Amino acid sequence: MIYLDYQATTPLAPEVAKAMSPWIEEKFANPHSPSKWGSEAEAAIEVARKRVETAIGLKGGSVAFTGSATEALNWALKGTVEKVPKGRNRIITVATEHAAVLDTCEWLAGRGVDLTVLPVRSDGRLDLDLLARELDDRVLLVAVMQVNNEIGVTQPISDIAKLAHEAGALMLCDAVQAFGRVEICKGPDLVAVSAHKVYGPKGIGALWMRKGAEPAPLLHGGGQERGMRSGTLSPALCVGFGAAARLADERMTRDYDHVQKLWSAALRALGDGWKINGSTAHRFHGNLNIRREGVDGARLIADLRDVAFSLGSACASGSGRPSHVLRALGLDYRESRSSIRLGFGRYTRLKELVEACRRIAAAAHAQEKLDA
Are residues 73 and 192 in contact, defined by beta-carbon separation less than 8 angstroms? Predict the structure, then answer.
């Protein structure tokens, strides 16, 4: 199989698997136990926490581990609303956000929060003038992702955070697709990240919180994670996340340069007839979301079973509905159905990517001939 679905998940780095192994096998103690073995596990978790904080690269805050980035985003949104100052009951977000943000915001709207979902331009970028006009003294939180998971388009997070702060609001950034791939923008008060998007294990995420901006707890119980997030932590998952974060931090420039070469090679191998969805100037190049008139993306996936790629977000696969992100760009139903997403990264070999892209182009051409 040629794996081109890096936005859905990344392969586990060998270094990460090696770091996790002792904590899966013989070092099984509860890290919240006062025993010698528990204390050793707790110490390993704190080392991992520092590695994740270092890789995030923001000052004046700290990380709490969660079960996923979805949990981190839910916690940031619901917990911030729970601590809402009097008179601030409004959230602003963007139409191209991940479902973990949009669905949580809708849930909050059903409970009295005033929700504004801003559109994007046809290139997928937010109009900052529109945001500035919408901001007022009722806004509690502005939630915008740095790198879009479906189309790879980036948002000017530092500028957005500055506008939010000028209005007295907090800023939440979904940095899941940015973390470990590009530098996380300065300015947000809350940042959600995930291990399995950065060659780490599934089942663990984290919420970075600026000091003073910590949300109210979402989970209650033993208060294990600094009194803010209850539940026994997994030393193996935390150590794996820490190892993945350190590796990503060390390799960021190498990984980025590799992705740039892959992007150029993919476009050459695909040939003419494809259109890129979203901005070409403001995007992460490890995400290539493209469409071709008259092509059915689902049929392409069925025709190329040994090449792993997708139609969009893995979280929405199987719904049968066109991507909300592509609809937000102004694409109609046919254009959305003719779109596919290719994702590549650290372990993608140039030769296999070129082979896969040529096969995708050939399968698309075959579709066109069949339907003609």
Answer: yes
Q: How far apart are CA 180 and CA 168, in angstroms?
A: 30
103: nearest Cα among 315, 348, 258: 315
The tens digit of pLDDT for each residue in 292-335 reads 998 999 999 999 999 999 996 554 555 556 799 999 999 999 99
Which of the residues in the chain have pLDDT under 70?
A: 312-321, 371-372
- Evaluate whether 260 touches 253 at the Cβ level (below 8 Å): no
Distance (Å, whole) CA 216 – CA 209: 12
Taking the C-alpha atoms of residue 341 and residue 323, their distance in angstroms, rounded to an integer, is 11
Over its C-alpha atoms, the chain yields an Rg (Å, rounded) of 21
For residue 72, what is the enclosing H or E element? helix 69-82
CB 142 within 8 A of CB 160: yes
Going by C-beta distance under 8 Å and a sequence separation of 6 or more, which residues neighbour residue 55?
Answer: 179, 180, 245, 246, 248, 249
**Residue 252 structure tokens:** 């960021």
Residues identified as active-site: 315
DSSP code per residue over 156-216: -HHHHHHHHHHTT-EEEEE-TTTTTTSPPPS--SEEEEESTTTTS-SS-EEEEEETT-PPP
Residue 229 near residue 66 (C-beta atoms within 8 A): yes
Dist CA 347 CA 10 (whole Å): 9
Q: What is the per-residue pLDDT across 62-79, written as a single tens digit (0 to 9) for each? A: 999 999 999 999 999 999
Tell me how far apart the alpha carbons of residues 94 and 74 are, in angstroms, rounded to a whole number.
Answer: 16
Q: What is the pTM of this model?
A: 0.96
